[in-house]
Amino acid sequence: MDEKKYQQLEQQLTPKPAYLKNCLAAFITGGFVCLIGQFVALFYITFFDFTERTASNPTVATMIFFAMLLTGFGVYKKFAQFAGAGSAVPITGFGNAVVSSAIEHRSEGYVLGVGGNMFKLAGSVILYGVFSAFAVALIKSILVALGVISW
């Protein structure tokens, strides 16, 4: 069989992706994850006297914890297979990715396997976050010093 016939056969046998179904699943599940996050934020606001602004940090930490817990029990993988990008885009995708890499490399030991591989992903995210915060703070400080904006 020559290459051209092989490519034609491959195109015939390759299933067509269900773009609309995948987009709807990602939209609905991503929205559902965000809805749960909103309920968590309202929980902190109602029961712990946080403001909307101060409730964001514990809400993010709680959502990451939930994702890590569900990943450890094997539930998040099933959810992610259905949700697609709807599970990867919210902050829960970060928690899942960190724990998944830790679980995957646990046979290599706790320090080099779990710790080393867990922070390969988390390290780049933390580094980017710290650098971005520094850059924004520097720009804001310059604009304040120039009198363009007030503190």
Rg from alpha-carbon coordinates: 22 Å
The N- to C-terminal Cα distance equals 72 Å
Which class do the helix and strand fractions yield? mainly alpha
Arithmetic mean of pLDDT: 87
Instruction: Count the domains.
Output: 1
Q: How helix-rich are the residues, as a percent range? A: over 70%
Beta content comes to under 5%
Could you spell the SSE succession in H and E letters? HHHHHHH
Q: What is the number of helical segments per DSSP (H or I, 4+ residues)?
A: 7
Low-confidence stretches: none
Number of strands: 0
For the biggest sheet, the summary is: none
Assembly category? single chain
**CA-based shape:** extended
Report on the architecture of this protein:
This protein has helices at residues 3-13, 19-48, 56-72, 75-83, 85-88, 92-104, 110-145. The chain is mostly helical. Helix 2 (19-48) packs across helix 3 (56-72), helix 3 (56-72) packs parallel to helix 6 (92-104) and helix 6 packs antiparallel against helix 7 (110-145). The radius of gyration is 22 Å and the shape is extended. It has one domain (18-145). It contains 7 helices and no strands.
